[in-house]
């Protein structure tokens, strides 16, 4: 299931813009432009730390032949992927 990105909405009863982040409803204020600025600030802050440029490559093979196919390595016997260290340029 794909998680939806939260979007601000206008709450008529309170006259304020709000956004739902997790289980919290956050009041963004009554001005639409300022609310979108605050929303963008909140989303940037919740994006987490910057990605580490040092990363690994993960892959698996599937070999097929006339009688069928098989994953390598066999996921019933071992981890069905291989992680190869990669040095970022």
Please give a structural write-up.
There is one protein chain. This protein has about 90 residues and is an alpha+beta fold. Helices cover about 15% and strands about 35% of the residues. It has one helix and seven strands, in the order E-E-E-H-E-E-E-E. It has one helix at about 30-45, and strands at about 10, 15-20, 25-30, 55-60, 60-65, 70, 80-85. The longest helix has 14 residues, at about 30-45. It is elongated, with a radius of gyration of 23 Å. The model has no long low-confidence stretch (mean pLDDT about 75).
Q: Per DSSP, what share of the residues sits in E-state strands of 2 or more residues?
A: 35-45%
* Low-confidence sequence ranges: none
Taking the sheet with the most strands, its summary is: 3 strands, antiparallel
Class inferred from helices and paired strands: alpha+beta
Figure out the total of helices: 1
Brief overview, please?
The chain is α+β, with helices and mostly antiparallel strands and 89 residues long.
Topology of this structure?
Layout (H helix, E strand, L loop, with lengths): L8 E3 L4 E6 L2 E6 L2 H14 L10 E4 L1 E5 L2 E5 L9 E4 L4
Antiparallel strand pairs: 1-2, 2-3, 4-7, 5-6
Properties at a glance:
alpha+beta; 89 residues; two-stranded antiparallel ribbon
């Amino acid at each position: 299931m794909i998680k939806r990105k939260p979007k601000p909405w206008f709450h008529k009863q309170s006259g304020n813009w709000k956004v739902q982040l997790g289980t919290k409803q956050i009041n963004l204020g009554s001005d639409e432009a300022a609310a979108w600025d605050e929303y963008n600030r909140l989303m940037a802050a919740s994006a987490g730390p910057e990605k580490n440029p040092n990363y690994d490559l993960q892959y698996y093979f599937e070999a097929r032949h006339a009688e069928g196919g098989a994953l390598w390595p066999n996921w019933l016997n071992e981890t069905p992927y291989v992680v190869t260290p990669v040095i970022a340029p």
